[in-house]
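In keeping with the milestone schedule agreed at the kick-off meeting, the structural modelling team has produced records for the first pair of proteins. Each record is given below as a sequence line and a structure-token line. The laboratory manager (R.T.) confirmed that both were archived under the project's standard naming scheme.
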Amino acid sequence: MTSPPHWLLGRITWDSVPMAHEPIVLWTFIAVVLGGLVVLAALSKYRLWGPLWRDWICSIDHKKIGIMYMILGLVMFLRGFADAIMMRLHQAMAVGENLGYLPPHHYDQIFTAHGVIMIFFVAMPFVTGLMNYLVPLQIGARDVSFPFLNNFSFWMTTGGAVLVMLSLFLGEFSTSGWLALSNLGAQDPGVGLDYYIWGLQVAGVGTTLSGINLIVTIIKMRAPGMQLMKMPIFTWTALCTNALIVATFPILTAALVLMTLDRYLGTHFFTNDLGGNSMLYVNLIWIWGHPEVYILVLPAFGVYSEIVPTFARKRLFGYTSMVYATVVITILSYLVWLHHFFTMGSGATVNTFFGITTMIISIPTGAKIFNWLFTMYRGRIRFTVPMMWTIGFMVTFAIGGMTGVLLAVPPADFVLHNSLFLVAHFHNVIIGGVVFAVFAGINYWFPKAFGYRLVESWGKASFWFWLTGFWVAFLPPYILGLMGVTRRVSHFEDPTVQPFFVVAAFGAVLIAAGIACFLIQLAVSFQRRSELRDLTGDPWDARTLEWATSSPPPQYNFAFTPVAYEIDAWWDMKKHGYQRPLSGFAPIHMPANTAAGFVIAMLSTLFGFAMIWHMWPLAIGSLAAIILATIVHTFNYQRDYYIPAADVADAEALRTRQLAQAAHV
């Protein structure tokens, strides 16, 4: 029987510290502490605390917030991939009498954490970071509509990530899978599921507000002449993605609120007794969960739609059909959620409807693939690193899409649903679609964000390790799935499956080499940044408005709001011999930095932590502090300032000198 919670510390006891009895966690903790000390020492030695606080933590510049989203995604990606490597090594060992090196309870935590981190705290920050950075630049705006909200959204997302990471060293994480499906009915009373609930609730608030912000930005802040059907495709995909976010994340919030009531107040929404029904939760989580897949992949499609025309040196084939395909996918993504549980007894009629809608949604996706192929057809293709990632995506994603159509057939799904085939399919579309797009996008827009290109050689090495590693890692699960090997299992009795798992583990090692090459690429490029410097602001001879600014862009983005006449506005301006204005600059009105977003988000994170551990005094205190901090912020009237015209003139004069220098090189 568990002892009653402490009045102040709640459920925290010495047993809550896993380092005391888990050597893997202990060594991880030591490594994290040492790494943290190195970072703190570096910040102190180079006197970076002030700039870090003023220019980054308190920043409401959409470009810096976008970069911080990308950094958050990269840090969490390393954690999520560490979980993946641990699982792959364990599965390669845990066959027959060998039980592997992870206890089943620890394995279940790792596989839950891997899924949660990779979707919510890797893929989401990556695509949100790209949208934050690029959308205002692409539509000719100076910032997003609600700059403070942008800062607050980022720190709420970070707060959710902090709670998930904290579960590694205090308490435990959920063991019920990335959508918490296996704890329904009879729920685990431990803190693992509570970490899951509060981590996602805190991060979900940030994502929802970010979605509202970007929709309003795209609708209300486009440059003169940029009608909806003249927007870059990436901005179109961002608009559709954020519409999905605003429509679906409240459903996730509601499902988690009801689960919280079940756990904290003893209600029976999702239990198997007193009128509850766990299928209600399964429906709610997947009505959010399937649009979430498109929330991730639509911006990825947008990235490829920017890269292909640039490196094929042709206008995107079928712009209008590409826009319609994006909108159709957005709408249809709401009509397919039940294909995630064909096996749960909805009946033949319902299964048939959702099977057909799932097949239909593959049609606009296929249309996009053909649009990219036709854009490349007879183009003068430059095989740069972003273009290689794009071609790798087209091959990989096409195969992943075909296995998806196979799973859309209910009788086939009955056979394959709970097998490793499904795991392979999901990774095929998310890695082949989203992760490849992220690496393509980083290589493509890095010179815009930091003013120097990334080294090509290490980028190509990373690409080839990733592409080969992916197929070596995920072809065996396809085969095992067809053989009937089930997913979510930490040990297998049949020794004949072991060679497949060993090959898959080797594939994970190849992917690790690809990640290492990417990190080396960042380091080597930084060392050689002077020779890789981009003075033109347009190193790829690209087509959209973000390339009309310097690299990196000034704080105000554009000294004069650009005017768009064509779909590829910057390409059209270059074609007609556009000349930058060199005089007549006026003061520019800009929003001022504030610490309020960071403070309120960290208080929200503290509130989540207190609720996880039933620390009621801290929960009440932090909730009161959130309300107080919000009220105080409403009385802050120092929200904006003007960049003097002289400063704008100086920045533009520097840009003129850089362009002249680039012309002589």
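The second protein of the pair:
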Amino acid sequence: MSQLATTPPARAVCRVEVRTNEANDPRAAAALRKAAAAGVHAASVRVARVYLIEGELSPDQSQHLAAALLANPVTETAVVGAEPPAPGAQVVEVHPLPGVMDPPAETVARAAEELLGVMPIAASTGWRYDFEGITADDARRIADTALANPVIAAVHTAPYCPAELPHGATTPFALTHVPIRDLDDAALMTLSREGHLFLDLAEMHALRAHYKSLDREPTDIELETIAQTWSEHCVHKTLKSKIHYTGPTDDIIDWTNRPSHTPESASSPAGQAVRIDNLLKSTVAAATFELIEEGIDWTLSVFVDNAGIIAFDDDHAVCVKVETHNHPSAIEPYGGAATGIGGCIRDILGTGLAAKPIAGTDVFCVAPPETIPPAGALPPARVLTQIVGGVRDYGNRVGVPTLTGAVSFDERYIGNPLVYCGCIGVMPRDKTAGDANPGDLIVALGGRTGRDGVHGATFSSAELTDSHADEFSHAVQIGNPIEEKKVIDATLRARDHASGCLFSAITDCGAGGFSSAVGEMGEKIGATVHLDRAPLKYDGLSYTEIWISEAQERMVLAVPEANLATLQAICDEEHVELSVLGTFGTDNAELILNYHDTEVGRLAMSFMHDGLPDPERTATWTPAPPAQESSPEKLDITATLLAVLTDPNVASKRWIIEQYDHEVQGGTLIKPLVGEGGAGPGDATVIAPVASSQKGLAISQGLCTSMGDPDRAGDPYLMALAAIDECVRNLVCVGADPDRIAILDNFCWPSCSKPENLGSLVRAAEGCYDAAKAYRTPFVSGKDSLNNQFTTEDGRTIEIPPTLLITGVAIVNDTDRCVTSDMKRAGSALVLVGPDCDTLASSIAGARAGATGPPPITDLTTGPATARAVARLIADGRVRAAHDVSEGGLLTSVAEMLIGAAGQLGARLDTADLPDAALFGESPSRYVLEMDTADLTALEGLTHRVIGTTDDTSRLHADTFDLAVDELARAWAGTHDWSSM
């Protein structure tokens, strides 16, 4: 045998291109649509998946890898190397930047090692586009505006195959101390901003004083730890602050007898000048604890864990959490949204002693597609399609159905979109709490640590500007749902082990990474951490980066040492990496950080968690000058109804909804789209958390931003009332029990350093208190994001409108009694239930027609009473279909019910005497019910009006208008499919 034959192949990079054999390539069609949206009309494009495989591979092994692993032999063709471009074709290749998470590459590398028996193998993936009929400049424009985000990807104009893939380089260890004790105020604030600490001057003073008392300078890792612990994102310091509020003397809010509210002086009229001690505790939390004192006994854990927990039945509990991922999604929408839902799923997994994630939610607030973005902001169509894609790919691949949500449009979201992601879980009732014990091992499970997400917590607490994509690209994270699925499976096996739960406590590595997770779990007992034991994605991370990285798919567990071997065996079987980072418990409840046998940080847990100065803030509210309420001339009902149905806030979101898997896990009873073929919109979804139970869980939201917009004569207090009312109505309309509704608050606000913005936040929080008490809906969890604005390169600040999302979950006592919004049969009575509506203010039709005036007011006596009455009718089987009256008003709700019937039914309405406000206004607490005429006597004592009957005409008609249901459906469904943009 010759020496040449026995020499192993040298390590090199092999390039493989994979293309479809199909004549119609959907990826190519999508690329052409994106090019057209960018103003470039290409004649054609060919698309290839590119794999760069690094290893000691022979040519035969490369060919075998391409044929056996990378390409489907029936539908695809693989080429080892680079296929030459056609003459005149413009090549665009998109590859991830070094260090950016590339989940398909990880899967390919591991599969290649198993297939070929060659180790180690590294991989990277990319996309190749060969455009014809365009110039090189056109190709670059397509790449920059549609195909690549420079924050995470590099663009190449020729086939790319480097000599080697990027590798991290080990950096010399050097312990860094940061001088702070002698800094003046200006220097302190420079350190805060340039060091990405984002602490205010009082907080920097507290830091300086602390280290003066210790007679030493802080290390860099200590400053980073304190910054994330004290960040707005983690500690909610604005909502917990002492607030001096000044408002009008003539106020709709009754300021008397509110908990921890004190008039600033004896002579001050109530509400004109009031001190609020801890806004969150005095409003949102106060409502919950007062309701518990009044007898609500089914809340099991509120405001203390990663999610709120309520009882489901005698043996099971359900938990719920909703987070925002706004700033990361502004920079990289796909990755930001994907890690938003991924992080919320881990919140559920990290609740109590681990809950199983069973459903996801998503609500997006973006600018309309025609809005021109300022420099530094992405086009809104690109933002929406990519945040949808991020939630879709993560949820579908991790196996959690995305079941309910909404999209709201306003041009002021242009630089700062809002991405709310939520998750619901189920768990045994005896596993709802856990605590780390001294001596427990600090165990990390899941993904490896990289630089992705560094400064994520502090970045989320900062304001966005035109340069944020450059300055904070390191805060972007790309998730790996397959890794998360493995972590979920391993964790639930460990929880349910025959010998008992193998861990004492669990939490996720979210904002702040290990710093937040270990810091919170060890708050009372301390912890010793060895950072060099954390598995890394690549070499070169500093000890501080390891500690604060927000790399995804990681959980931290407190594990008794005796259980470690059993847990390790489970993780080995589930292919989950486990590492022991240290031990919980120190003599003085300190956090002690080590790196290669050198102490790099030591912090008292008491200072970390209790050293934050108690902030005092000033808030003011000046209502808009009373405007003479005006209504337009008599509306053209046909034109107005069709226009409202096409409004982006009303029109169908089918193109989004159908991208999500609603069937995975097999527990979905009512989906987001209802009726034959999912023709129409539903009010809420219903799932079966426990397969053997007749009970279900309903999930929905309330979002009434227009009613609280100060720039448009709104009042955030009324917005909060309406949002809770809408959430309750949505849940009641599918058969939920209004006495078993739990809600969550998510405040997204512009900077509350402005007193007027903080004043609007105060009013929204007061509305949450009043409505939660009235509807008896305890808050069990929540989140706030309070720096949502974008400053352009010319210094103009675009503030988002104050936005409050209310999410609700509710027990359905008998899922056989559930109803949906689609009309069921001809000959039924259509009944409007609830108070009259006498204004077009704050409505879609009113905005289009120029109507002005104050927002409608939610009656906190009528609203709850009506909800309970409708719920009783549904529980008694007297309602065939139910739909709330919200965006678009009464006629829009009736139209949507007919659309849900898939054109099989019509309705004759008797509304000739109703004013336009009754037809198109959006006053709260109203429902449309389809009922048998024989059951109408059950409505006695309830404010209602029979507005018509269903028929088989497939038309919506009255004395003053006549429209085919097909025309209504086309208007509703055909205007806002952004998937082609």
